[in-house]
Amino acid sequence: MPLHTLQRVRSTPGFSLLNCRCIRCNGCVTRRPRSTVFARWVVRLRCVTRLVTVAAAKGGVGKTTLAYELAYLLRAPLIDLDWDRGGATRQWGYRYEDRMRAPLLDALERGRVPKPVSSVRKPDLIPSHPDFADNQPAPEDMADALTKWAGEWGRDYVVVDTHPGGVPSTFGAMSVAGVVVVPTVLATKELEALEGMLDELPDYPLLIAPNKVPGAPPAAQVARLGQLVERAGVKVAPVVSHYAWLPRRQIRVALTSYDPEPARIQPFTAELRGLAEAVKTYGR
User: Fold this and answer.
1) What are phi and psi for residue 186, nearest 5 degrees?
2) Residue 283: what pLDDT?
3) CB-count exposure of residue 144 (10 Å: 0-12, 13-18, 19+)
4) Is 89 contained in some domain?
5) What's the distance, CA 56 to chain centroid?
6) Cα of 220 vs its chain's centroid, Å
7) Is the dihedral of CA 139, 143, 148, 154 positive or negative?
8) Which residues, other chains included, contact 170 with Cβ-Cβ below 8 Å and sequence gap of 6+?
9) What is the DSSP-derived secondary structure letter of residue 117?
10) Closest C-alpha among 162, 219, 228, 165 to residue 191
11) Which residue in 20, 102, 113, 181 has the fewest CB atoms around it within 10 Å?
């Protein structure tokens, strides 16, 4: 069966690329741990929670927005490993300049479990810090810390937003994830970056999340995405569309926190809930 087109996904109520059996949607894609140490981490983590890592090989694909909303929908702490100022920490409204401590750095340095900061209609947050760029833990240490924190918090889910590209903390977060959400934009360079990620991580539980998809998706890029996911045998989540107003939004609360929801955001929040459901059911 060929990969369903994004046009059909957008036009058919209740339809999702996740329904396509040609990309092995029956939970048959599992990660083979790269070492016995990684295997031990996975066993420990699955006993207490499910870690959802949001990662991308290239920036500008909407990674932080999806991570922020997924964390709120899953009632999960959001661990921000992206030290750039345009990340989830700043979106949340946390300003490291006004704080005496850096919770993420302190927890990693001292081996402690950090306490998430909380606010109304926002996900609980472990904020990042610019110095994290020069104080990257080894992937094994990052993975071990995430496993420990998740176990201590006792939540059903923990969401991790990562820095784009192949940095040690990102690899550590992916290594212990139950699912790695990979936001994907239908553009030439972004798909090339995705191809590299699929080639480098063939045994990871990747969930491709088409994001910022225009009303008339480009046929060539749709076909290219179809080729990549079929060859890699990975799952594809429901589409999240492009919304011109979203980059200009300044309000810090989660979009999915509104009740009732303004009419303008309802299509977007419905798509976000579809993505959250795909995360919940991944591999099950």
Assistant:
1) -80, 75
2) 87
3) buried
4) yes
5) 8
6) 25
7) positive
8) 53, 55, 81, 162, 163
9) B
10) 228
11) 113
Task: Evaluate whether 89 touches 131 at the Cβ level (below 8 Å).
Answer: no
Is residue 30, in this structure, part of any structural domain at all? yes
CATH number of the domain at 96, please. 3.40.50.300
- Residue 1 inside a domain? The answer is no
Range of the domain at 184: 6-12+20-281
Q: Which residues of 166-203 are buried (b: 16+ CB within 10 A; e: fewer)?
A: ebebbbbbbbbbbbbbbbbbbeeebbebbbebbeebee
Q: Are strands 206-210 and 78-80 parallel, antiparallel or unpaired?
A: unpaired
| Tally of domains in the chain | 1
CB atoms within 10 A of CB 222: 19
161, 149, 159: which is closest to 45 by C-alpha? 149
Chain centroid, CA 66 distance in Å: 6
Residue 249, both tokens: 């939004």
Whole-number Å distance between alpha carbons of 109 and 112? 8
171 found inside a domain:
yes
Distance CA 233, CA 202 (A): 9
For 5, the 3-state DSSP assignment is: coil
| Predicted confidence (pLDDT) per residue in 185-210, tens digit | 999 999 999 999 999 999 999 999 99
- List 125's β-bridge partners, or say none: 78, 117
State residue 284's pLDDT score: 79
Roughly how many angstroms between the first and final C-alpha of the chain, as a whole number? 22
The reported pLDDT for the residue numbered 45 is 44
Contact criterion met (CB below 8 Å) for 264 and 35: no
Which stretches of the chain drop beneath a pLDDT of 70?
1-48
